[in-house]
Amino acid sequence: IITGAGLGLVFRGNASTGGTAIISQIVNKYFKVSLGIAILFVDGLVILSAMYAFNADIVLFSLICLFTIGRVVDMIQVGLVRSKNVMIISPKYVAIQERLLRELDKGVTLVPIEGGYRSAKGMLLMTVIREKDFPRLKEAILEIDEEAFLISMSASEVYGKGFSLKKVADSYGVEATNANNLQ
Asked: Does tRNA processing count among this protein's keywords (predicted)?
């Protein structure tokens, strides 16, 4: 865990520890995978090649440690609270908006849209939620419209009213001017 935290901080500062970390950073840059996955892949190949010299117990333990290191690196890079940006397209957008606002207590942004295929006008609903809340949100939307079009993307940083920067500032009793400007 400490190794993963150290590597995460080094990578967050756009630095490197040398060795396979450089290869992992190259894999991250060109193949668009997280640094944790890149470390798991590159160092995993090294560990698997050690099966010829060491017994399976040592190799398995090393892979478990490597997996933990990779996850911690990703947590340091992305943060502990994972968020999702969810976009919803449905002709029943008013009912979905009401449900998100009232029952799930989620903010919603409405964006007028026009379909590229049929030029149909519509409304896109966008909300940012915690990853753990996604199944409940999806269920609520599909109860209203089984044919709703949902797009879910990972959001690595979210700032503004109701999100991390404001909450952190409030917990320290400080005014977060950046967050207040987004309200």
From this structure: no
